[in-house]
Structure formats: C-alpha cells, structure tokens
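Sequence, please.
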C-alpha cells in the first residue's frame, strides 16, 4: 500500500484552515452578542453588533450545512 503524502497533507491543511475559520467566525458572533448585551445594559442600542453576530452565526450554519451536503452527496 502506498500513501500519497501530498494529498494527505493537502487534506490536513484544508481541514485545519476550515476549522480555524469556523471557530473564529463563531467567536466573532459571540463577541458581537456580548457587545450588544453590554450596550443594552448601559441604555444604548447596538443593532450593528447584533446584526453582525447573526450574520456570523448564519455563515457558520451555512458552512456546516455545506459540509453535510458534501458528505451526503
């Protein structure tokens, strides 16, 4: 059995990059929600922070759905 190390390295690099990007996107969503909560407690509104957080969560959900689509099809 011969292992194609270049292909294995390529798969590792892409999966690592996708994982880091997805975790960073989710973390940005959490930061946006916390900024919204902090602004709400101080009597202000932070609709941009909330909208950005929802956009980050939507992108995370889209990436997960695309990954499931790739596995199933």
């Amino acid at each position: 059995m011969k292992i194609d190390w270049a292909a294995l390295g390529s798969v590792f690099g892409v999966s690592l990059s996708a994982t880091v990007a997805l975790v960073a996107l989710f973390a940005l969503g959490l930061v946006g929600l916390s900024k919204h909560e902090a602004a709400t407690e101080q009597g202000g509104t932070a609709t941009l922070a909330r909208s950005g957080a929802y956009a980050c969560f939507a992108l995370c959900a889209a990436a997960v759905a695309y990954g499931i689509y790739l596995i199933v099809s």
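Residues 5-72 form one domain.
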